[in-house]
Amino acid sequence: MAYIRTPNDSQVRYRHQCRSSPRCIVVALSASFIAFNWIVFHAFKSESSSDNSSDPLSTDSSGKPLPTNWLDTATERSRGYRASKDWQGQWYRWRALNPSKIEQQTDDLTKFDIVYTWVNGSDPLFQTMRLDSQNNHPMFQKSLRENAKQIDSTTKRRYRDTDELRYSLRSTFDYASDLFRRIHIVTAEVAPNQPQIPSWLIQKPDSPIQIVSHKTIFPNSSHLPSYNSLSIESQFLNIPDLTDTFMYMNDDIFLGLKLLPSDLWTPLYGYVLHMEASLLVPPTVRYFDPNAITVGEWHSLQYSNYLLSQRFGPRHRAYIAHVIHVLSVSMLKEIQSLWPDDMEITSSHQFRGVGEGKDIHVSFFMGHYIMEKLRETQLESFWQYRLDTNQDGVLDWEERRRLIDRIKIWNVNQDQVTSDRRQHSRPTMIHAHKATLDRIGIRMSGTTLYRKSGLDGYPYMLRNADTSKTIPTATVKDRDGKDVLPQIPYRNYEPVKDRKCKLDVDFCFGPDFVDSTYPRIPAEQTKQIFSRMAFKEFHCGDCLLEILMQDPYRGGMGAWMPEDETSQAFASVVEKVARYNYVLGTSDYSFMALQGAKGAKKDLDILLAKWDQKAFFCINDDFPDDPVVENEIQTLFRDFLNTRFRLPSPYEIVE
Ligand SMILES: *[C@@H]1O[C@H](CO)[C@@H](O)[C@H](O)[C@H]1NC(C)=O
Ligand SMILES: *[C@@H]1O[C@H](CO)[C@@H](O)[C@H](O)[C@H]1NC(C)=O
């Protein structure tokens, strides 16, 4: 049965992919990595070493200025909840909630927009335009000569229109009408000022459905027309009048259970990210075969992870589940301000595979950027405001010894058998989250389960990682001589008591840090130690964060947040936590590829039988290139859609 993409299926497929391309190249990251992070740390330390320095929030920790209006948009995101600063501080520091301080605005302001990408590939104007672009694009010249027919059928398949948008929109009106404010359909222009408009769409001035042409969102019109979803997604941040947080849907995704705004973001728990940690994206650039006809998303995923790895550490990162993608305009702007060249280059890639597929995959990138920034905020805050007790920028032996002693006690405790191991008694950040949200009038749909808050530690810490050495990124041989990934994270949202890590202070902090005869580590060197520990040897940083949060004696927010809650430092940490806060969520979904009439019928019937179970399903209509089979499957598919989503949406012309 091919229809449900369980994590295991995906893993098998991914491994298969990896094995079949033995030339997967490994790029040495270290040198540029250290240099980059040194600069990063340098910027953050010098910037906030005195309380009256410039506002630390107006720059990213790499020292680059953030988009000037980001505070506005951050406020915009939570504009439904006019929240005071001390409300947030109390919430993060103590999990204390004072509902009277969170004044909820009208319902409409707490809703989010939905963005669809769509083109009508059956439109002759579109087809002419596409052929034209292909004939003029250097990437196609060689293969055009050699294999014109195959290219044509592959690209045709990618753009075939089975009227999915109509039904996907029906599913949105059926299940997400309490979530969305507006729906933006991002589409191609087939003639000047003539964007494609679904033939059945009723356009009214007060309609929540807006057509947005690529031309509107691409500042550089020489990148158009674009047939590359990655390039189009990279320009979402320019969609006019878009809510800061929004949901991105492809027209082959259908909703099957009720969704509410709390499935995307809440003021208490931040973004709700859906990830698939059994499917891991390597931190290395993927080998690009210039003769390949189709280029999937893995080149862009790996390239995105390569960029993230240079900045935050060379780890395998979880695939973003192929369901709803939560995106944010202010986050995308921040990413654009930090990786301007890569965002521009992604925009310029008219076809998948141009530039060897070195694209920023915005959904994957943003999800992991948020995860890393929250982690960085926590570790930085500890290093800067708690480890350096007297705040002189220098680490003396007394300051270091306190941390080393604490880690020693932690390590001994980690060696105990589970029943003897001491646990901290602090409730996790998402403990009783449904009731807590209820107190400020936010309902949960039940469709997404909140599984893990980023504030409780890095969710995908490596399983029993050996912190006495660098973890390789390429596969290693296990005892039986089999190639295995050396980086296996905790990925099933294991309870805290089931997670273990020991921190090797000698390796993680280096010889000077643990040398009692070395009286004072100067500021520059502490920065280097920090960025090596936090990023390059990321498993050290993960474990330190685990210790800070879970230490049975002193663990918790108080272990890393600035002590003085009235200080500027505290306010600035709270502001960053609010900006990057997130939970990982899961929901039940299916991924189905329709191939062969018999199998398709069976799969679709199963989906109907599971009417009330699947939160989302993605149906890939990449059917075989045989007109008879194609017709048969298309009819089955359409019958299914008409049964499953019977009611026309309010903006649909009904024949
Ligand atoms: C797509 O284009 C074809 C050909 O112009 C047209 O018949 C069809 O109605 C269009 N589909 C939609 C959903 O607009
Ligand atoms: C627009 O994109 C083209 C092609 O990538 C580039 O050469 C040009 O400099 C860009 N223009 C601007 C204004 O950025």
Automatic annotation (TrEMBL):
It holds the Pfam family Stealth_CR4. Residues 47-62 have a biased composition (Low complexity). Keywords: Membrane, Transferase, Transmembrane, Transmembrane helix. Residues 158-266 form the Stealth protein CR2 conserved region domain. This is Stealth protein CR2 conserved region 2 domain-containing protein. The keyword ATP-binding does not apply. The chain crosses the membrane at residues 24-44. Residues 614-653 form the Stealth protein CR4 conserved region domain.
